[in-house]
């Protein structure tokens, strides 16, 4: 069966809103590690990892085994927010392997399973804890598409679909938005301290330490530290959105870790379950945990299968530094490979940005180039997406468990695809 025929039912019946199916037009059937296989048996190397959901690869055998055992013993699947042994074991593992080693005393709030659910809860509790409504968010931020989170998201393509006002968010420039020689926090600090600025004292500032959807922009350590100082000095809560950049993606468990700052609130989702099952949580400093019992609910706050694989992921990968050491090695290989591609095409003016295993090849000279490379790479058996306000950044998001051989093979496909696209032009 040809791919065209195989996709007929999607064209006929699935809403026009469908997105990734257009970039990767085939019917995927199974996957392991960094390899996807479609219904015709064709293999694809995965440099996308479910937009950061599959940091430990597809169907990681350690998680699959634990999930099958849990199902076979009739473990609780759905439990609202009742206590279950799966949830208890996850919280204990998170406390022991994530919070305690980093000296964090945050409480855990389990929200509905999407990232946007976590962001909504974070914004709501920040407003409630401070009694203020304004939230500062940054240029090119992506925080989700539900109304509250969408108000904090920058991209006009998404904002334009809201149909109602997106209120109570003030936009300020992210690190290096005006070039690396301008410290954009000068503007935030001046506006906060100037009663004429028009910026009301915010409840919170929400920020990604590495912007994923916004084009792989990396906030510097100094910028994050200064942001923490500015917010702390004025009683403004600092929310780190770690939904994409967290859970090892940026090289450490949290993307903010390298800067040494302690956020008041942290949102986590995407790769936290490890297996790709939906799960989200919000970390709250105890003073910020002002919720009254049941004040923010959600039927699917207790995806117990996700708790099982999430616990196994923490135990398997975060008990010592072997995993982060391996990420650091692969990070160097990826950066070196991208630097070589940029150096070999000086007339294109490519810029390489990233950290850990989240990298972007920014093709600002010709903003259509990244999309054309992605399409050509797919024809050659590589799944790789674009990001940025103009989809001008080729986005490298391989599983953190990818082998060095696979990383090199994917980079070779990108290089071949780039040269094919340039030759065709
Ligand atoms: C993906 C993402 C979200 C939204 O998560 P959904 O599950 O799509 O609602 C929020 N913030 C960041 C940084 C993300 O990458």
TrEMBL record:
E.C. code: 2.6.1.76
One Pfam family, short name: Aminotran_3
PROSITE patterns named among the record's database cross-references: AA_TRANSFER_CLASS_3
Pathways per UniProt: Amine and polyamine biosynthesis; ectoine biosynthesis; L-ectoine from L-aspartate 4-semialdehyde: step 1/3
UniProt GO MF annotations: diaminobutyrate-2-oxoglutarate transaminase activity; diaminobutyrate-pyruvate transaminase activity; pyridoxal phosphate binding
Cofactor list: pyridoxal 5'-phosphate
InterPro entries: Aminotrans_3 (IPR005814), Aminotrans_3_PPA_site (IPR049704), Dat (IPR004637), Ectoine_EctB (IPR012773), PyrdxlP-dep_Trfase (IPR015424), PyrdxlP-dep_Trfase_major (IPR015421), PyrdxlP-dep_Trfase_small (IPR015422)
NCBIfam families: dat, ectoine_ectB, PRK09264.1
Name recorded for this polypeptide: Diaminobutyrate--2-oxoglutarate transaminase
Protein's organism: Agromyces ramosus
């Amino acid at each position: 069966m040809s791919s065209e025929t195989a996709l007929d039912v999607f064209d006929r019946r699935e809403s026009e809103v469908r997105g990734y199916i257009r970039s990767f037009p085939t019917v995927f059937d199974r996957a392991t590690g960094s390899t996807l296989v479609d219904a015709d048996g064709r293999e694809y190397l995965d440099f996308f990892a479910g937009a950061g959901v599959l940091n430990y690869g597809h169907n990681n055998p350690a998680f699959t085994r634990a999930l099958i055992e849990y199902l076979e013993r009739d473990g609780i699947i759905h439990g609202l927010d009742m206590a279950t042994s799966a949830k208890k074991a996850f919280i204990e593992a998170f406390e022991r392997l994530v919070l305690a080693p980093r000296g964090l005393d945050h409480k855990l709030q389990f929200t509905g399973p999407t990232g946007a659910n976590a962001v909504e809860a974070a914004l709501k509790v920040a407003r409630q804890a401070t009694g203020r409504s304004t939230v500062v968010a940054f240029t090119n931020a992506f925080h989700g598409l539900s109304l509250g989170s969408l108000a904090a998201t920058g991209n006009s393509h998404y904002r334009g679909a809201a149909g109602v006002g997106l209120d109570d968010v003030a936009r300020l420039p992210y690190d290096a938005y005006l070039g690396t020689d301008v410290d954009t926090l000068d503007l935030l600090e001046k506006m906060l301290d100037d009663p004429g600025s028009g910026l009301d004292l915010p409840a919170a500032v929400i920020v990604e330490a590495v912007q994923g959807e916004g084009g792989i922009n990396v906030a510097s350590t100094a910028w994050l530290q200064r942001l923490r100082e500015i917010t702390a000095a004025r009683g403004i809560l600092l929310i780190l959105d770690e939904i994409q950049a967290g859970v090892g993606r940026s090289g450490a468990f949290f993307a903010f870790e390298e800067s040494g700052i302690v956020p008041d609130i942290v949102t986590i989702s995407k790769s936290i379950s490890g297996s790709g099952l939906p799960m989200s949580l919000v970390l709250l400093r105890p003073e910020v945990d002002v919720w009254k019992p049941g004040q923010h609910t959600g039927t699917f706050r207790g995806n117990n299968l996700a708790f099982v694989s999430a616990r196994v992921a923490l135990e398997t990968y975060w008990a010592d530094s072997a995993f982060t050491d391996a990420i650091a090695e692969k990070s160097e290989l990826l950066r070196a490979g991208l630097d070589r591609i940029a150096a070999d095409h000086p007339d294109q003016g490519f810029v390489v940005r990233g950290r850990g295993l989240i990298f972007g090849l920014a093709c600002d000279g010709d903003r259509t180039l990244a999309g054309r490379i992605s399409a050509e790479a797919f024809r050659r058996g590589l799944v790789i997406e674009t990001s940025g306000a103009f989809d001008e950044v080729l986005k490298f998001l391989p599983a953190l468990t990818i082998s060095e051989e696979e990383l090199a093979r994917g980079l070779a496909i990108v290089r071949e695809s780039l040269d094919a696209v340039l030759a065709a032009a």
